What we know:
This protein has one helix spanning about 10-65, and strands at about 70-75, 80-85, 95-105, 110-125. It is α+β, with helices and mostly antiparallel strands. It has one domain (about 10-125).
Amino acid sequence: xxxxxxxxGFLLLETLIAFVIAALALAVLYRAAFDGAASVAVSRQETxxxxxxxSRLAALRVMAPAHRYVHTGPDGAGFFYRExxxxxxxxxxxxxxxxxxxxxxxxxxxxxxxxxxxLVAVPAQ
Length: 125
């Protein structure tokens, strides 16, 4: 009588395929964790930029320059700001005129930016 081979264990090829599948699964999980961490970092920077822009916009609203105004510079922690105020056209003899004010905070090398814009009424001069 002839004996049949015992097929109860894993073959070397099956074991290698299992290791490859496990390695691919770990690579996908690692990539997902890394992307999540990067998204959290970008979110923190956007929040910081938004806070800085809101603060600068509030100060610019109080100042409310009646004529063209542009100011730029570093804002600390790798942020750079640009403040602008532009007087909008108004009817002749109007007591108040609208001024568009805008604050942009930029950071990083990817060109990320947050821009806030508002309108302010100032006395006509």
